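pinned: reference chain
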Amino acid sequence: MATERPDPPLTGGERATLRGFLDHHRATLAWKCDGLTDEQLRRAAVPTSALSLLGLVRHMAEVERTWFRRIIDGEDVPLVWSATGDFQAAYDAGTSTRAEAFAAWEAEVAHARRVEQAAPSLDVTGVVGKTGETVSLRMVMLHLIHEYARHNGHADLIREAVDGRTGV
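pinned: its structure tokens
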């Protein structure tokens, strides 16, 4: 099944634009994983790294969980793949499967969407646990767009190394 990637809106309000770009980048990560086996999804970018497409999916599940559930919604939930809070642990997908990683990521994306949609405005704030700093939902959405865009660049290179597929 091919992933459909929504185009971000060319006009519209701030919230719709942020939501559109975030959903576009979420879909881009899934699209980069389309048609690959679990083994191909676990293939490391380079021999000295654990970074793989499946690792990126797992990492982004942790990122979504942290920023939307833990920070904006104030939920006391642990990370999925790291009891110590080390986001790098999610990159090691050596024994992971598409089903496991995508189920976690899709659940976190769905939860993040509910949190964002329930917020009365982008000015809703949360507290970053490690620093105690206050952050707005606006900043969280911008940060997630940045995080996905950066990792989608990694995904481009990894996918090309796996089977030669390139594309925007």
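why pinned: The first strand starts at residue 125 and ends at 127. The chain has a mean pLDDT of 93.
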